Give the backbone structure.
Amino acid sequence: MLNRRGFLKIGGATAFAALFGGCERLPKTLVPFVIPPENYALGESLWYASVCRQCPAGCGIVVRNSEGRAKKIEGNPLHPVNRGKLCARGQAGLQALYHPERLGKPLKLDGPRGSGKFREIPWEEALRLLMTGLSSVRAEAPTALLMLTDPMRGHRNLVSARFMKAFGSPHRVAWDPFGQDAHLSANEAVYGVRDLPEHDLAGTRYLLSFSGDFLETGVSPVHFGHAYGRMRAARPTVRGKFVHFGPRLSMTAASADAFLPVAPGTEGYAALGIAHVMVREKLTPAAAAAGRLWNAGLKEFTPEAAGKKTGAPAADIEAVAREFGSNQPGLAMAGDAAASCTNGVFNLSAVGLLNLLAGNVGKPGGISFPDRLAAFASFGAEAKLLLPAAESGYPALRDAVERMGKGAFRMALLSGATNPAFTLPPSLKFEEALLKVPTIVSFASFLDETTSLSDLVLPTPTYLEEWGDDIAPAGHGGEAITLGQPVVAPFRDTRSMPDVLIAAAKELGGPAAAALPWGSFRECLDKAYAGMGIDLEESHKNGGIFSGKADAPRRAPKEGSPALPKAAEAAFAGDPARYPLVLHVYPSSALSDGRGANLPWLQELPDPIATAVWRNWVEVGPKTAAALGLSDGDGVTVSSPFGSLQAFVFLHPAIAEGVAAMPLGQGHSRYGKYAADRGGNPYALLPASVESATKAPARHSTRVSLVKTRMKGALVRTVHPEGQWLYENIL
Amino acid sequence: MTRNAIASILALAALALAVLAPTRSTAAPPEQPIRYTHKVHVTDYKLDCRFCHVYAAKSASAGIPSVAKCMMCHRTIATDRPEIRKLAQYWKDKKPIPWVRVTELQEYTYFPHFRMVTYGKVPCLTCHPGIDKDDIAVQRQEFGMGWCLACHRGRGVSIDCWTCHI
C-alpha cells in the first residue's frame, strides 16, 4: 500500500507534470503593426534625439525606440548642457509616457465643480465647447480670458503669446514656484545686467556655495553635476575646492570639502564677512572697488559679526575667505534657500560681491552673462519670447487671483506642470478664486490638483510625443537651440496645446487667424528654423542646433563701481515662543516641486540624504530633537501659523540647530494613486509673504513647532542613519 | 507488485506526461483569424517570401507583414472575397491581426534570420519545407538540435554552443 510519504512523492511528480506539461511555449500570437512606424525595422533599435521636459533645465536626450516603443532615455552626448548625462527624473520620463492614469480622451465635468469627476467626450465635442466659450468671451469681453501656465520657452511660448495678444487679453500669467526673481534683481544691482548668468564651475579653482543645491535641484543639475566633476578631476594639477554654507547638509553640501551650517536667511552676512577679510587682507585684484566697498560700510561686517549672525565660527569664515581670495579664479554661487527669504536680494547681492572682488566677471572659471538673444536676431521683438523666462510670476499670479475672486475672468486656460493649486500657499485661496471663473479649460496629461478643478480637460501628448524647441537657461553661451521631436507615435488621442491654439485661432478668424498663420505647430517650427538657413533634418538628428561658438558675453557695466547691498534681516512669521523652529523647505531631488510625485520610479528613489522613499519627513538636528524630546522615527505634528501636517522625524546629523527642514513634493490630494495621500503638503505650511524687493514668494519665512504625535506605520528608509552614520562620530 | 514498483510506474507516467506534453502536432493547422494561403501568394503568383517577410534579411525575426502591407495590394485585388473583407475590416478598424504562431523554435536557442538569409544564403524552404504549397501554414520541420547540427556541419559553419544557445 502507499503510505503518506509515497503518496506525496507521486503527488509531487504529478503536480510537476500538470504544471509544466500544460505550459506551452510563448507567445501564441504574432501581432504585427497596422501601419509600421517610420524607419521601423523589426528587432533593430532606433535612437531619436529630443528635449527633456521633466524639469526646466532643458537637457538634450536620445531615446531608444524599439518595435515602435520608447524603451530607454539617455542624455544626448552632443548637447552642451548635459553632455550625454541624464538624471533620474529624466530617465523616469518613460513612466509619464506609459502611465496608466494618462489622459487619452477629452474630459467634461460630470459632477459639482471642483469635484474632479469627469466623463470622456469626443474631441469634436470638446473643441466645440472650447470654441463656444472662446467666441463668446471674445465677442463680449476679450480681456476676461486668463491664460495660466508654467514658464514656457521656444515657439510654444510664442504661439501662446501671439494667441493671447490677438485675442485681446493681456492676462497671460506664467507661474514658477522656483522663479529666479531675486537672482535677476541682485544681478542687476551688482553687475548691472538683469539676466541669468553662466557659472563656469568646471574652470574654477575655489567654489563657494551659499545654500545652492546645484547638484540635485536648481537651474540645471545635470549640467552642474558634470561641470562639478570636471572642476574636481579633469585638470591634471588642480583639484578645485568646494565650501558650502547653508542651513542643512544637502546632497550638494555632502559633496563639499567643508560644510558650514548657517542660520536660514543669513547667507548674505556670511558672504559679507568673507568680503571683509578679502578687502582687509588685500586678497582682491579689484582694489578700487574694494576701497569703495570698505568705506561704504564693509568694514563693519567683520567675520566676528558674521559669525554672530550666522552661527558659523568666525575663524572658519576667515579661513575660507583667505583661501578663496588666494585661489583664483574663485566662484561664488547662491541657491534657492538664500533667494527665497524675505531678504533674498540682499543675500544674493552679497554673494555677487564676492565674484566682483574675485575679479572673475566675464573670465574663465567665473561668472558671465551670455548674449542669448544674438542667436535669435532674426526674430526681432519676439526673440525674447523664445528665451528662458526666469521670473516666478508671483506678483502677476496674485493679481490674477484677486481678479478671479472679483469675477473679472469669464474663462481660464490652464496648462503646465507647476500646479498652482498645490504649490501656492493656501492662504491665497487660489482654488476658491479659480472656481469663480465660469469656464476653466485645462491642457494636461494628468489630473493634478489644478486640472481637477476644470470644466473641460484637453489631453496633451507627453514631451516624448510632440514637436518643440527649447533654449536651456544654463549650460551654454547662447549657442544652443534644442529641438524636440516625437520619439514614438502618440499613444493616446491627444493634441498639443499649440496645435489646439492654432486651430482655435483659425476658427476665430480675423487678427487671431492672421497671428497664427500655420496649419500646425510643426509647420510653425519648420518655417521658423528653415528661415534660419539650417538643415532641419540634420538638426533633428543631432537634437538641436549647436554651433559650438558662443558670441562674446555681455559686459557687466557695474563691475568697477559696486555698491554695498543694504543689509536686511530675514523675517520669520510666528511667535518664537510658540513656534520655536525655523522652517527650511527644499525641492525634493526626485519629485522636484511636486511634479514627479506621480511616477513610481521617482517615489521609490531613495532621498540622497535621508534614504527615505514614498513619503516625506521632517529633519531636525540631534540637539534640537533632544531638547524637544523627539527621537528618530517619531511621528510629529508640524504646525506653522498657516497650517499643519504630520510627518516622521528624521534626525539629520548636519543641520543648523533650531531649524526644521522638509522636502517639497509630497502631500498630493489628487494627481493619481502613486502621488495621492503620501504625507502632508509642506507648501501648506508656508505664508503668502514675499521677498521684500522683488515680491517673489518667500518660502523661507515662517517658524514651526513640532509636537510628538502617534502616527501609523513608519518612514521607509534603505539605510538606518544610526547604522550608517553614528552621530557621535560626526558631532 | 511491490509498493515501490507501483510508485515508480506512476512517477514514470507523470514524467512522460511532463516530457511529451509540449511537443507539437505538425498535422493540424491552427485556427487563424484570416484563412491566409501561402499557396496562392507564393506558388500561384510567385511572390518572393521577403516581399512580405521584409525583415528576414536584416533582423533576427523575419516579421509578419503589417496590415498596411496587405492592403497595398488588397485595396484593389480580390476585394469581394470573404477573407479579404475580413482583412479590410481590420484595416478599417485600424486593428492589428492577431495571427497564431505557426513555426516555433526550441527554447533557449537563438535563430537570427539575417545570418541564414543574408550571409548563409539558405533558402527559406530549407527550414520551412512545403510552406509554399500550404493553404493554411503548418510547421513540418521540428528544429531539433540534431537537424540543425547536420546542416551546420554540412555547410562547415560554427557548431559552438553559443552560436545558437545565447
In short: The beta strands of chain B are 99-100.
